[in-house]
Design brief:
alpha/beta; 8-stranded mixed β-sheet; globular; disordered N terminus
């Protein structure tokens, strides 16, 4: 295991370095109620630079029973989650927004055998020089219909290179700014047709469903069940299927 961690250290450093452009090295934790969660989401906020930018999504995930560790350049959050997985039998999933998406995928693949159970990318792309289509790791990418920076079509163009267990989810009517709590607009962004805060709720529900599915082999997480109306019809995958469906795109 020690040799495996050493071999993957480069990817961890890259993931941590890309986690935030101007953040601190302080770890931010969004804790589940009463510490009940059996799953950890290690989240890299990318170009928006700090955990607070995604508080709308991360708070909702904590409320549903997950612990979110925000990676802020040091690599400590990922190491802490992997240690917890060994010692406490916790599920570990990585997530990266924007320019942190590619390093998150790299780190997830590198640490799969050390205990990464899944990878979520939000409004981001893989590096063009990699091919992960033979990697057996659960994954999902979430995009917004009117995001002009990373469009659903751009992500679909990379689909063949993603791990085969990946799902491609698009939030209809959403834009790039809709993922972020602390900004009202992103330059050149498309116009959202969703109500304020709705895209954050949809994003949190999608991630919650993925974590629930991927962490099912652990003890039953103490998570809050979704109400029937929590999965808004605006969320669909890249193939036009309702993102709330229980079916996966796994081979």
């Amino acid at each position: 295991m020690r040799n495996l961690w050493r071999a993957a250290w480069g990817s961890m450093v890259a993931f941590a370095a890309a986690a935030c452009g101007a953040g601190t090295t302080e770890e931010t934790v969004y804790a589940a109620p009463d510490g009940a969660a059996t799953g950890d989401l290690v989240f890299a906020p990318g170009e928006f630079g700090e955990a607070a930018a995604f508080a709308g999504v991360l708070d909702k995930l904590a409320d549903k029973g997950w612990r979110v560790l925000v990676e802020e350049r040091s690599g400590d959050a990922l190491m802490r989650a992997l240690a917890a997985r060994r010692n406490e039998e916790r599920c570990v999933v990585l997530a990266g927004f924007g320019d942190a998406a590619a390093p998150a995928i790299d780190a997830a693949v590198a640490h799969r055998k050390a205990g990464i159970d899944g990878i979520v990318t939000i409004a981001g792309l893989m590096r063009e020089d990699v091919d992960y289509k033979h990697e057996r790791i659960a994954g999902a990418t979430i995009s917004a219909e009117f995001d002009p920076i990373v469009t659903p079509l751009m992500i679909q163009g990379q689909a063949i290179e993603f791990p085969p267990l990946s799902e491609f989810l698009t939030i209809r009517g959403g834009n790039r700014a809709g993922f972020v709590t602390t900004v009202d607009a992103v330059e050149g962004d498309g116009e959202s047709t969703l109500e304020p805060g709705q895209q954050e709720l949809i994003t949190a529900n999608l991630i919650h469903n993925l974590l629930t599915k991927w962490c099912s082999s652990f003890n039953e997480p103490a998570v809050t069940p979704l109400r029937p109306d929590d999965n808004d019809a605006a969320s669909t995958d890249g193939r036009g299927r309702d993102a709330g469906d229980d079916e996966s795109d796994a081979d």
